[in-house]
Amino acid sequence: MTTPHLLRRSGAVALALALPLASVALPLRALAQTPPAPAAAPAPAAAPLPPETVVAKVNGAPVTAGDLAIAAEDPALSLPGVDEAQKKNLLIDYMVDLKVGAQAAEAAKVGDSPDFQRKLAYFKSKLLLDEYLEREAKKAVTPEAAKALYDQTVTAMKPEEEVHARHILVDNEEEAKKISARIKGGEDFSKIAAETSKDPGSKAEGGDLGWFTKERMVAPFAEAAFKLPVGQVSDPIKTQFGWHVIKVEEKRTKPVPTFAEMKDQVDQYLTRKSQQDLILKLREGAKIERTDAATPAAAPKAP
């Protein structure tokens, strides 16, 4: 029925390497024999360090709390389930590895190659654009703009009817007729659905399909469900999936989602639209010249 970030790979590797080897080398026998320690109460979160605070030095070059904060924003260095103290240690280890490697690369003149300079220019441009778009988008995503967009959208929405129904799906009409007769004779719909329905998505729920609008279902099923009075059981209905017996539980006008329910989507839309509009405006005001060879259009064939 309805049924490029240069450092991401190195970051993941560095964090994996930073994990203590003892944690993976611990003998299984010791694990089996050691009773679990009682859960300790979570420690209160420490106040964040000022960005300029030096947390480590690599050959005299400082690693600061600000460096750690930037590294922590890298999706490749996400550490779900890791407490803050351990996460800080892992990020410091990562930044130490990064500094050591970068110093070695500079000594090897890696940064002098034309290819590296092109990559550096690309990622600088990308970071600048990302920061600029994020900053400008914040100006557009205001509570007033979000509420205005929500009100405009809700006003344009047309009322939709929804049905809450159950169904039983079987392979042939004869079986569907027997099931319909049993239910109309007083047997429990949910019990029969759990015993006989071929729809794995709803069988365990007693055939319950929840609330749906008409366009979400295939036409023959939707027509029957929306015509059927509440509490009634249908005669067999055929679709491309098989034969259905339907029971309508409730009907209602689809409720309009609240502003709180829609706020994240509204903010995302405003963000994307403001960024798109900004890029289009910048392109319109820029002198852009394509210097690559244009592909000649194919000459039309004579009739």
UniProtKB/TrEMBL annotation:
The keyword Chloroplast does not apply. GO terms for molecular function: isomerase activity. Residues 160-250 form the PpiC domain. It catalyses: [protein]-peptidylproline (omega=180) = [protein]-peptidylproline (omega=0). It comes from the Bacteria. Pfam families: Rotamase_3 (PF13616). Its EC number is 5.2.1.8. This is Parvulin-like PPIase.
